[in-house]
Amino acid sequence: MNCAECREELVAYVEGLSGPQSRQDVARHLEECAACRDELAELTELRDRLVEDGQAVGHRSLETPVMDRIVREGTFKLRTFQMRKRYGRAGIGLVAAVAAVTALVVVWPGPGNGVATAAEVLARGIDAIAHLQSVYIQARMRTIAQDNFELIGLDYDFVDHQIWKQFGDLPRWRIEKPGRVVVMDGESALLWIKSANKAFKAGPNSGVVEWLRPLLDPHNVLESEQRLAQERGSELSLSREKGSDGRGELVLTVEAKARGDFTNDWLKNKSISASDNRRVYRFDADTHLLKALQVYVHAETGDVLVFEITQIDYDADIDPSLFSLTLPEDVVWFQRPDVLPDNETYAGMEPDEAVRAFFQACADEDWDEVLKYWPMTALSQEFKEGLGGLEIVSLGKPFQSGRYPGWFVPYEIKLKSGNVRKWNLAIRNDNPAKRWQADGGL
Amino acid sequence: MCRTDREYVECCLDGHPDTFRQLVVRYQGVLLSYLTGRLGDRDRAEEAAQETLVRAYFGLSKLKQAETFCSWLLGIATRVAGQQQRVDHRRREVARAWAERGPDPELSQDYGLERAVAGLPEPYRQVTLLRYYGGLSCAQVAEELEVPLGTVTKQLSRAYGLLRETLRQGQDADEDREVLR
Question: Which of A169, B57, B59, B81 has its CA 20 to 30 A from that of A201?
Answer without folding.
Answer: A169
